[in-house]
Amino acid sequence: MALLESFLGLLWMLLAASAVCLASTSADVDTYIVHMDSAAMPSAFSGRRSWYAATLAATAEASDAIPTDEKIVYVYDNAIHGFSARLSSAQLEQLKKSHGFLSCYRDAPVKKDTTHTSDFLELSASTGLWPASNYGEDVIIGVLDSGIWPESASFRDDGLSAIPSRWRGACEKGTAFSSSACNRKLIGARSFNKGLLASDPNLTIAVNSPRDTDGHGTHTSSTAGGNYVEGASFFGYASGVARGMAPRARLAMYKVLWDEGAVVSDVIAGIDQAISDGVDVISLSLGLDDVALYEDPIAVASFAAVQKGIFVSTSAGNEGPFLGFLHNGTPWVLTVAAGTVDREFAALIGLGDGTLVTGQSLYPGSPASLKQMPMAFLESCDNTTLLKKTRHKIVVCQADGLGGAIQYLRYAKVDAGLFISNDSISDLYSQFSFPAAIISPQDGPTILNYIHRSSEPIATITFRQTVLGTKPAPTVATYTSRGPSASCPTVLKPDVMAPGSLILASWAQNSTVGRVGTHNLYSPFAIDSGTSMACPHASGVAASLKAARPGWSPAAIRSALMTTASHLDNTGAPIKDMGNRNKHASPLAMGAGHIDPNRALEPGLVYDAGTEDYVNLLCAMNFTSRQLRTITRTATVDCSNPTLDLNYPSFIAYFDPNKTSAGAPSVREFRRTVTNIGDNPVASYTAKLVDIKGFTVSVAPEKLSFKEKYEKQSFTLTLKENTREKKDAVLHGSLTWVDDEEKYVVRSPIVATTVSPISL
């Protein structure tokens, strides 16, 4: 079959080449992006890659000494059907006559965001949230983290006005940190380590100041509210213009995480000071596992923050993919899960037969291309002796788990490696310290077949490739922690998902961003993954919402983010979960869905809640009086109206999987109240339900009619178990309120589960 394809491919090239043969000089060569009609691919070709290569080879001129595989810059399988290539004007004209050609355009410099996430979230300078909020102008985001690198270009104060007069914070000096390090962008910086020092009196803090020595805090701060930075990249990956989610917001750093450790008391002190200083948003990319609400410093301190009207955004944790390990499942904060974006970092592998394969890689070393290297397949690559004998080749491995295989190749000091793997956390391994790439199981056979049929297999690997528009995206990241919340099971968590995988943002330049061989690398920007990266995306969007809608409560902002979130990916299909074999993601993994900032600006209806609502919830949780007062900070707590039914934009019901068929069917009821904040004071909304298998889901009334703005209307949602047959552990549907003009679509997820939350 391979020989037949080679023959037919050669025939295809000869026939196409006979059409036109024009001379050109190298001076008019440029890069073009070519769209092809995949349905027009001749049956002679087993895949689009070989078809593209043959089509492009047909345009080669007699004087052209550049091999086809080196002309091709990228092969696109998901974003578009086509490729990008270096072409002369004559070759381009000939290509336009090729069978299956659709269109092409010259590759050109564009103004894009380096993190790319603002593009992915469709934030625009012309319409939507950014212009409505003036890019989050003057909203103050307090970040509790590992400190900040004030010299980063992301924290320049170009174009910003005077510091808001309501600001009461300070810029504290310390080790390698001057009080003049702050400006109109970074308006405050403090550090807290008294608790840490108290836990170990012999401890010495190496850098006792707000300066970041880890990189984490600089990354999260710049993601939330960093200024514009042109020419940003990670060693050529993701190059472009960097900016945070609220570029004109102000930032204040509260350093509570140290190289030497971190303790609860310092976190509480940081939040306490942030409230006092006058922040509007608190961003917390940290958390504690297995603690009850009254023992959780984030839960306790953020209760006070929310009472002051401060929006608190937190990370869900990185303990996925198993259910029930989420932290920050606090009902008065936003809990953010992590997902992917429509961008991949890649290496292009050109095999000796001209076939092109794209692999996943963030190898930052030089040279950026390895040319015509011999290849060897060593199966699982766990034989050190064989690895050392073939170290000067591109070693190809079949790696179910990437960690072990990568370690073997690193130890053997091989020149390059290709890992064929379906590891669901491959993103976390792609930043190699030696030239390497991860190959999908779909593309692996192409490489292996070439090696097996070639007496001297060779390949060229080109690194530092960035592909935009990949599909499907987003997907739920494997590592993101799942609900249900152990600390408050009756509130569905997480709330939403935001970009968290392979996010580029600023970095502390005294902290390494990787290694090449034995050499540490340093860079003003780094690419990192985790719910720590997802949280500041939501924090920055919340800051912009607060700037555009200053009268909204923290609960209203959270409601707007949740009810407008998308449960569909960029193919129009339900978002998939990488940690669950790419099945449809459940709300226990992604919450209401992926944040949609522009839609959140106009949610139509909101599920509002305040201190009294949270107190009523706490009163129903069987806490002692002391535990209640620990959270509420009041001398007495009014528990005259306890209820577990918080006015929340989502629903979760638990059912006993061991219950017998005898007796009445299980029923769960939820009462909710929505507030009309749409443009039209007089409006009607109709309920649309997505049913849950094995349950009857109903809502009463089925229509809500409003006569004025800010009017409230209530409804009851009921889940009734239809059958005692065994059900999936997690089932889900949704309730959506749609106005008569179909301008507002207010969606809430519904979960029915037999998973018992961890008892705290």
UniProtKB/TrEMBL annotation:
Residues 31-111 form the Inhibitor I9 domain. Belongs to the peptidase S8 family. It comes from the Eukaryota. Residues 136-572 form the Peptidase S8/S53 domain. The active site is at D145 (charge relay system), H216 (charge relay system), S532 (charge relay system). One of its GO terms (cellular component) is extracellular region. It is found in: Secreted. InterPro entries: Peptidase_S8/S53_dom, Peptidase_S8/S53_dom_sf, Peptidase_S8_Ser-AS, Peptidase_S8_subtilisin-rel, Peptidases_S8_3, S8pro/Inhibitor_I9, S8pro/Inhibitor_I9_sf, SBT. Coiled coil: none annotated. Residues 1-23 form the signal peptide. One of its GO terms (biological process) is proteolysis. One of its GO terms (molecular function) is serine-type endopeptidase activity. Its main location: secreted. Residues 645-751 form the Subtilisin-like protease fibronectin type-III domain. PANTHER family: PROPROTEIN CONVERTASE SUBTILISIN/KEXIN. This is Subtilisin-like protease fibronectin type-III domain-containing protein. Keywords: Glycoprotein, Hydrolase, Protease, Secreted, Serine protease, Signal.
